[in-house]
Amino acid sequence: MALRNLQISRVVETTAEGHRFLSFDVSLSGHLISTISVRHENGRLIWSQSTVHGFEDFDQGDREAIEKQLRAIEICTRTTQLH
pLDDT tens-digit profile of 44-76? Predict the structure, then answer.
């Protein structure tokens, strides 16, 4: 069952040896529950290559919700940088 009210914050992008990684915090109803670092490739998170500190039992629905929020953040960031 997917968790409700997941929020993503403090997104940081790093690149190492040609690979892109995203690190971010995940909150549930305003409470920090996890910090995640995950490889990002072709617009998708490679969950099998992630490091999770804190709650880590995210189901497929949770992962899709996280990816959707990250895409929205990325689009907003690109738009802001263009102006």
Answer: 899 999 999 999 999 999 999 999 999 888 766
Q: How many domains are there within the chain?
A: 1
User: For residue 1, is it within any domain?
Assistant: no
- Domain region containing 77: 6-82
Sheet holding 6-16, edge to edge: 6-16, 19-28, 31-41, 44-54
Angle made by CA atoms 55, 73, 56, in degrees to the nearest 5: 10
- Give the residues across from 40 on adjacent strands: 20, 45
